[in-house]
Automatic annotation (TrEMBL):
This is AraC-type DNA-binding protein. Keywords: DNA-binding, Transcription, Transcription regulation. The keyword Nucleotide-binding does not apply. It comes from Marisediminitalea aggregata. GO terms for molecular function: DNA-binding transcription factor activity; transcription cis-regulatory region binding.
Length: 339
């Protein structure tokens, strides 16, 4: 379906077979095989066949998730996700790379990631916040990855580092936050992401100084970039993912109800509820996660006091605000400011 302006309006879900197999699956298989995983075991139970790794075969997010689960089980070492992310940028054909490589500066690359997310990063999305000096990207599960989300985040972060290096020739100063303890295989994180790492944080997050956005790309070319964008737009069967579409509605109106959101997405309330369940989430979970992001940014990042944060989040009662923050984050506002 296309809107009156010619743009795709369908919403990508985990079972839609639209992802290029030669890009996602082939790269993941190559990395896992290099780490000792037998190819036939990697493909077991995925519905993916060897022929799907070449040519124009398309696969679903759910199939790639099953492939990732097999890679975790059969590949040796702790760097499979990181290598997968790097391989997406530096390895075999990725139709999106020409657009990024011919950008004027890295800020243009980052702004384009959400635009081409169904093709570039279907599993991980980011909600951007900013202050005077930095941009903050709070990472979100875009496809109901569940326990595989850590793997997908590691791949996303490694791909971002590799993309910056390929486009600008520099390793830009990304800061990475992870909501779990310092891993025993910390050297894999440091080797692939650098040393600006924090663990035991409330959410997965990436921070980068605004001045880094103006770092020029090595091969800026408006003509080639426009051609690459034209090619990508022709491949964009879907505007964005279902989960991120619901999130976008909730960001615009935090009091939106499920039936109201369903109507704006041109589906019934029952259909939206079922589709969200298929992605291992619910409307209330998405709503709470958005409010959690806002609380973390205002309290932990900006260090606002309770009254200031409550006003920004439309709370009229400070006691209710404290209770909500504790429910969303497991921490009181004071504890969150100290993280």
């Amino acid at each position: 379906m296309r809107s009156s302006d010619g743009k795709n309006t369908r919403l990508l879900t985990a079972n839609d077979k639209v992802l290029p197999g030669r890009q996602l699956a082939a790269n993941l298989v190559a990395v896992a095989v290099a780490r000792g995983a037998p190819e036939h075991k990697l493909l077991r139970g995925t519905g993916i066949f060897t022929d799907d790794l070449v040519g124009d075969s398309t696969l679903s997010c759910r199939q790639i998730q099953k492939l990732a689960a097999n890679a975790i089980q059969y590949a040796k070492g702790y760097d499979v996700a990181f290598r997968f992310g790097q391989q997406l940028i530096t390895g075999s054909m990725n139709d999106a790379l020409p657009y990024f490589m011919h950008a004027r500066h890295f800020g243009q690359c980052l702004r384009a990631l959400p635009v081409f997310q169904p093709l570039v990063s279907p599993f991980v999305s980011a909600q951007r916040f900013e202050d005077d000096d930095c941009y903050y990207y709070l990472l979100q599960d875009a496809m109901g990855c569940g326990k595989l989300f850590v793997f997908m985040v590691e791949a996303y972060c490694a791909a971002l580092v590799a993309l910056a290096k390929m486009c600008t020739g520099k390793r830009l100063p990304f800061h990475f936050d992870f909501p779990f303890g310092r891993p025993r295989h910390i050297q894999e994180y440091e080797e692939n992401l650098g040393f600006r790492l924090r663990f035991n944080q409330p959410v997965f997050a990436i921070r980068i100084e605004k001045q880094a956005m103006s770092v020029p790309c090595l091969q800026p070319n408006l003509t080639l970039q426009a051609y690459a964008r034209h090619r990508l737009n022709r491949q964009m069967h879907y505007r964005r993912g279902l989960l991120d579409s619901v999130r976008a509605l909730l960001h615009r109106n935090s009091s939106l109800t499920l039936p109201e959101a369903a109507a704006r997405l041109n589906m019934s309330a029952a259909s939206l509820k079922r589709k969200l369940s298929e992605h291992q989430t619910s409307f209330s979970d998405l709503h709470d996660n958005i409010r959690r992001q806002q609380a973390i940014f205002y309290l932990q990042v900006q260090k606002l006091n309770n009254e200031q944060s409550a006003v920004k989040m439309a709370f009229s009662d400070i006691t209710n605000f404290r209770r909500a923050v504790k429910r969303w984050t497991g921490l009181t506002p004071s504890e969150l400011r100290q993280v």
